[in-house]
Design goal:
globular, alpha+beta, 10 strands, Aminopeptidase, disordered N terminus
C-alpha cells in the first residue's frame, strides 16, 4: 500500500527558465526577506554568462537553490557561489549539502577547479559546514563586505566575511567528502563564544566587540601565511583552526587583489 503522506523525492537539477528564477526569488524572500534578496534578472545574467542556478525540488516545489556567478582571474576560471537558500521546513535535512555536491559535480564536468563563496565568521554552524563537511579553506577576510544592512540576519553588525575556497578536485576535498578526518599540524586557533548567535541577537555592543577582535586575529593570522582549515567546538567556546598555507597543497592560486572592501 502506498503511503500518500510520504515526503516526495528531492531532485537537484539546473534551473533554466524565467519561471524557475522567479521561484528562486520567492524562496529568497521567504528565507531572508527583502533586504538582501536579488531580483530574477540577476539569475538570468548568471545563467547566460556561465554561472549556475541549481534548484532542489520536492516534487514540483522548489525548496532550495544555489546561484553562482562566473569568475575569472589571469589564467584561472572559477565560480563565485553568491547564495544558497533552503526553506526552513527543509533545513537540516541535507538539502544544502546536496546542492553543494551537485555544484561540485557540475564544476568538475566543466573543468572548473575552484568554487568560492563568502560566509560570516560568526555563523559557526555555516563555518563548520564549509570547512569540515565540505573541505573548503579560508585565507582572506573582507571587513564589512556588503555594508551594514537592515536585515535581522546581520543583527546591525558590519557584514564581515571570510572567503571560502573549495578546490573541488583536490585530494583534501576528496578525503573530506569520503568521511576521512582532516590531518591537523602546526595549528593556531581563534576562539569565539559558542553562543555568539545569542550574543549578537541580544547584546549588539558585545557582538561588535567580539567581531572586531575576531577580525584582528584573522587578519593577523592570514598576514603570517596561515589558512583556516577547520572548526572545533569545545564547550563554551568554538575554535577556528588555522594551519600554515604551505601545508595545504591545493593552494596554488594567488590571492586576488581587492580595493579593501574586496570583490570575489
Amino acid at each position: 500500500m502506498i503511503n500518500s503522506s510520504a515526503p516526495p523525492e528531492i531532485e537537484v537539477r539546473h534551473c533554466r527558465s524565467l519561471a524557475e528564477y522567479e521561484a528562486c526569488v520567492r524562496l529568497e524572500l521567504a528565507v531572508w526577506g527583502e533586504d538582501i534578496a536579488v531580483p530574477s534578472p540577476i539569475f538570468v545574467v548568471a545563467h547566460q554568462t556561465g554561472g549556475q542556478i541549481l534548484g532542489a525540488f520536492a516534487g514540483s516545489r522548489l525548496i532550495g537553490f544555489t546561484m553562482a556567478l562566473a569568475g575569472f582571474r589571469p589564467g584561472q576560471q572559477f565560480l563565485h557561489s553568491h547564495m544558497t537558500a533552503v526553506l526552513p521546513e527543509f533545513q537540516n535535512q541535507g538539502v544544502g549539502r546536496r546542492l553543494k555536491l551537485f555544484q561540485r559535480d557540475d564544476a568538475l564536468r566543466r573543468g572548473i577547479p575552484l568554487v568560492e563563496w563568502t560566509f560570516d565568521p560568526l555563523e559557526l554552524k555555516n563555518a563548520y559546514f564549509n570547512l569540515v563537511r565540505l573541505g573548503a579553506v579560508a585565507r582572506r577576510y573582507i571587513p564589512d563586505c556588503y555594508g551594514v544592512t537592515k536585515s535581522p540576519l546581520h543583527a546591525g553588525l558590519p557584514t564581515d566575511r571570510l572567503v571560502a575556497e573549495w578546490f573541488v578536485a583536490s585530494e583534501r576535498v576528496k578525503s573530506v567528502l569520503s568521511g576521512a578526518a582532516p590531518v591537523l599540524r602546526s595549528t593556531a586557533r581563534i576562539s569565539l563564544p559558542s553562543n555568539i548567535g545569542e550574543v549578537k541577537a541580544f547584546d549588539n555592543a558585545a557582538g561588535q566587540r567580539i567581531q572586531v577582535e575576531a577580525r584582528q586575529k584573522f587578519q593577523e593570522g592570514f598576514s603570517k601565511g596561515y589558512v583556516a582549515t577547520s572548526i572545533e567546538s569545545i564547550g563554551a567556546t568554538t575554535d577556528y583552526i588555522l594551519q600554515p598555507a604551505d601545508l595545504i597543497a591545493e593552494l596554488d592560486l594567488p590571492l586576488s587583489h581587492s580595493d579593501g572592501k574586496g570583490t570575489v
